[in-house]
Write a structure and sequence with these properties.
8 helices, membrane, transmembrane helix, transmembrane
């Protein structure tokens, strides 16, 4: 009889421990998911502000292109601004969709995968910026004309044209270097995380919280 009582107490103790473990796991998951969700919500400002800004830029770029159609370099400058603005708009919409569509009830591994995709989208914005670099002189023409209604070409001489070409070549080389550095295998590099401070670092914060859940679940198995 005494052995039966000890066995029963031991079984009850085991059941209690299992309930406690599940409760701890549930509480930890709830807290860490809340923190991850908060981090990603704070990232929403980036795609929303980018979307609004480049909607305006694309609209004005298109208007600028039509109004200055007869002057090739202005038309081209406006087309460049419009094209890259559309790329930023598409990227921002994709980021918003990724952030808002995350299912926080999904398994941790899926959450980590979906969250990592958001970081890839943020890095894509840097790639767009790198693609813009060779066209910087034309964007300069666009800005001066748009802001001051002045044609820089009127004061450019042969020497300045050569300088213009040299700057374009240098920026093209710099663009290729940056694009090479932004390859997927470098997405976790410290220098890239530093560049994303305040405009993408929230993704790493969220991934950190998800990792804590994953490690706890492994320890409890």
């Amino acid at each position: 009889m005494e052995n039966l009582n000890i066995q029963e107490i031991w079984n009850q103790h085991g059941i209690l421990l299992e309930k406690t473990r599940k409760l701890n796991e549930s509480l930890l998951r709830e807290v860490k998911l809340g923190q991850a969700k908060s981090s990603l919500k704070s990232l929403l400002f980036l795609p929303i502000s980018t979307l609004l800004f480049y909607l305006i830029a694309a609209s004005y770029g298109l208007y600028f292109t039509v109004v200055n159609w007869e002057t090739w370099y202005f038309a081209f400058s406006g087309a460049v601004v419009t094209f890259f603005s559309l790329l930023f708009i598409a990227s921002s919409i994709r980021q918003l969709k990724q952030i808002l569509s995350i299912d926080y009830q999904a398994p941790v591994l899926k959450l980590q995968k979906d969250t990592s995709r958001i970081k890839v989208s943020v890095v894509y914005n840097l790639k767009i910026a790198a693609w813009i670099l060779p066209f910087a002189p034309f964007i300069g023409l666009f800005l001066v004309k748009a802001l001051f209604n002045f044609d820089l070409i009127q004061i450019i001489n042969d020497g300045m044209i050569v300088s213009f070409a040299v700057v374009t070549i240098i920026l093209e080389i710099l663009s290729l270097f940056v694009l090479r550095a932004l390859r997927p295998e470098n997405i976790s590099q410290k220098w890239l995380n530093w560049m994303l401070q305040g405009s993408g670092s929230q993704v790493d914060e969220a991934l950190g919280f998800l990792t804590e859940i994953e490690e706890f679940e492994k320890e409890e198995r």
